[in-house]
Specification:
The protein has about 280 residues and is α+β, with helices and mostly antiparallel strands. Helix content is about 30%, strand content about 20%. The chain is globular.
Length: about 280
C-alpha cells in the first residue's frame, strides 16, 4: 500500500544527490539527467576515470529541471519523515494528489498545470539511467540500468489527473533516507528559472560551508548541459552576478581566467540537518 504524502508535515525542502557518483572518489562524476527545457532528445553521457553515467531520454525527451520537482516532493517527504522518526512513513511506494503537488511546487492549478504534470511523469518514467558505478551494498537494485520513476495515474470524471501512485528507484530511496546524503534547500527554489535552479544545486553539491567552489566557465557550461553557445552562457552567468539571484550564495567571476567562484553566505540554510536525537532507538 503506497504511503500518502502530506506536505503539511514538511519542515524543509530537501534534495539528495543521487548523481554525484562515488563519493569516495576524489574526482567523482557529476552529472544531471535533467534538461533546461522540454524536447531535448539527445542522450547524455558523463565519463571520468572509468566511471560513467548515461541518460537515455524518453520518447518525448529528457526530464526537465521542472520535472525534477516530482523527485524533490518525494525526497522531501522521506527526509522529513526520517528526521521526525516517522519510520512508518518511509517507503519507495508513495502516493500524492495532483493538487497538493502543484501547490508545493508553486505552479498554479489550471488545466495546463495538470497536463504539465502528466508530461513530467511520462518523461521521468520513460528516461533511463545506465551506469557502471556500483551501488551501495544496501541497495538491492539489480543491473546497471534503472528508470527515474514508475507510476500510475488516477483520473477524475473529467479525465484530469487526480492522484499519482509512484515507485522510486532504490538508489533515490536509499539516499533520501540517509541523513548524511540529504541537503536542505532554500524555500525560494521554486521561483528560480531552470538554469538558476541547476546552478544553485551545483553550488549546493560542490561548495562547502567554509570552502568556496571555483569552477571554469567551460566546466560550468558542461555541467549544466546548456545547449546555448558559451558566449551566451557567459552573459547568463554575468546576469546572475548582477541580480544576485542564486539564494544562499555569493558569486564572483574572473573575466580574464574565465572562472566563477561560489561562496556560501553565513545566513544560508543548513548544508545538512543535524541527525535525529534518537538515531539508535
Amino acid at each position: 500500500m503506497p504511503i500518502l504524502i502530506s506536505p503539511d508535515s514538511f519542515t524543509h525542502i530537501y534534495f539528495a544527490d543521487v548523481f554525484g557518483a562515488d563519493k569516495a572518489n576524489r574526482n567523482p562524476v557529476v552529472c544531471t539527467p535533467f534538461s533546461l527545457s522540454a524536447g531535448d532528445l539527445k542522450a547524455r553521457r558523463f565519463d571520468l576515470d572509468g566511471q560513467f553515467f548515461e541518460i537515455t531520454p524518453s520518447a518525448t525527451g529528457l526530464p526537465t529541471m521542472r520535472d525534477k520537482d516530482v523527485w524533490l516532493y518525494c525526497v522531501s517527504w522521506l527526509a522529513n519523515a526520517m528526521f521526525d522518526e516517522r519510520h512508518e512513513d518511509l517507503s519507495r511506494n508513495l502516493r500524492f494528489t495532483a493538487r497538493e503537488f502543484l501547490d508545493f511546487s508553486k505552479r498554479g492549478n489550471g488545466g495546463a498545470q495538470y497536463d504539465g504534470l502528466v508530461q513530467a511523469l511520462d518523461r521521468l518514467a520513460g528516461s533511463k539511467i545506465t551506469t557502471n558505478i556500483r551501488p551501495s551494498a544496501e541497495i538491492k537494485e539489480s543491473g546497471d540500468s534503472f528508470n527515474l520513476i514508475r507510476y500510475e495515474a488516477e483520473r477524475d470524471r473529467d479525465g484530469r489527473i487526480d492522484a499519482v501512485n509512484i515507485e522510486l528507484p532504490e538508489r533515490l530511496y536509499h539516499f533520501a533516507t540517509d541523513w548524511m546524503q540529504v541537503c536542505a534547500m532554500h524555500p525560494d527554489y521554486f521561483t528560480l528559472t531552470p538554469l538558476h535552479r541547476l546552478i544553485y544545486l551545483l553550488a549546493k553539491i560542490h561548495c562547502g560551508e567554509w570552502q568556496p567552489w571555483a569552477v571554469s566557465l567551460n566546466e560550468l557550461h558542461r555541467l549544466t548541459g546548456c545547449s546555448s553557445p558559451l558566449r551566451k552562457f557567459k552573459k547568463s552567468v554575468q546576469g546572475l552576478l548582477k541580480d544576485k539571484s542564486i539564494p544562499e550564495y555569493r558569486m564572483e567571476m574572473d573575466a580574464q581566467k574565465m572562472t566563477v567562484t561560489f561562496y556560501r553566505l553565513p545566513e544560508a540554510t543548513p548544508m545538512l540537518v543535524p541527525a535525529p536525537v534518537n538515531r539508535s532507538a
